[in-house]
Amino acid sequence: MVHAHLGSTQTSVVRLRQCNSCFTPRMRAAVARRAFRVSNAASTSAKQAVQDDQVELGKTGIKVNSLAIGAWQWGDKSFWGYDTYGGYGEDEIRKAYQGIVDSGLNFVDTAEVYGFGKSEKYLGDFQGKTNTSVKIATKFAPVPWRFTSDAPVKALKGSLDRLNQKSVDLYQIHWPGFPVINSWANDAFCQGLIKCHQQGLAKAVGVSNYSVNRLQRANGIMKDSGVPLASDQVQFSLLYRKHEKEGLLAKAKELGVSVIAYSPLAQGLLTGKYTAGGSKPGGPRTAIFSDDKLEKLQPLVGLMKDIGSGHGGKTPAQVAINWVMCQGAIPIVGSKSYEHAQSAAGALGWRLSPDQISALDAASDSLQIAVGLPFENW
After folding, report:
1. Is 114 a catalytic residue?
2. Catalytic: which of 88, 97, 114, 338?
3. pLDDT tens-place string over residues 209-226
């Protein structure tokens, strides 16, 4: 229906231009108004489709979009090159937030370590200045000097100050404690999440980068307290299917825990924008985009293009994101511009067919070239 509306809009505009001399001013105004109404209806319909594409976080009763927008780039200089080599700054991420709102998206993932607090601060400022709101997920960093159940509570209060919020929708442990240094405090951190929930600071709580064994232990601690574990955020994409193959996705489903997938585009490898011999992203990401990797990816990218064309011209990135959703996970899509947010929204409101999922599974099975992070194995 959306495509029919868009077609009508384009036809009206073309006819208006071609026959402009044939129309009276009143006729031209009437056609222009109709084109605007049709275009606006199509936009409203697309936004509604995004808003309607929702899932529950674990067993918490909290509904969010089937994908989240990631705010790691908001203020991060070291990896993403904020305000330096990355070619974007505060103006771009302000527009990215507006793109989130305009497209009907309602779930943003941030963390206290992103931009050393700037990401949270920007998110809070943007909401306040636009009088809008989204569901917020943020994270506790178990750095070596934190090791008690009070640490998550204190850290969350700091996050809430930056976000200018009384509570967040989801509060997560960002990674397990460091081996030897404070890994023995992981149970205490879980107890800290429980305190955050009981004190009304977090509506739901979760973990991140937890293996199957750690997930089960954390879930047991939560279950004993009567506070459900909502989620486990892990790396997951067509190029990094470790957690699918090792049973984490299946175990999470069994426990009623949502899997939130970061890097669903493998840091950009699955966007289809980069080719061997072409330009590469700057900073630390440059090393990811070797010509050898990009050459190996071309058959998969070609398949994603073919599949996307059958869904009204969806991009390879949108196909890759949709594949993650079809595995039962909630992908986190980074956004540092208005266009990025709008493109992410285009992955919602439709789903790949079983045959298309199988084809992507087969094509990616031998292409597990994304690199995992060390704390996945802590």
Report:
1. yes
2. 114
3. 999 999 999 999 999 999
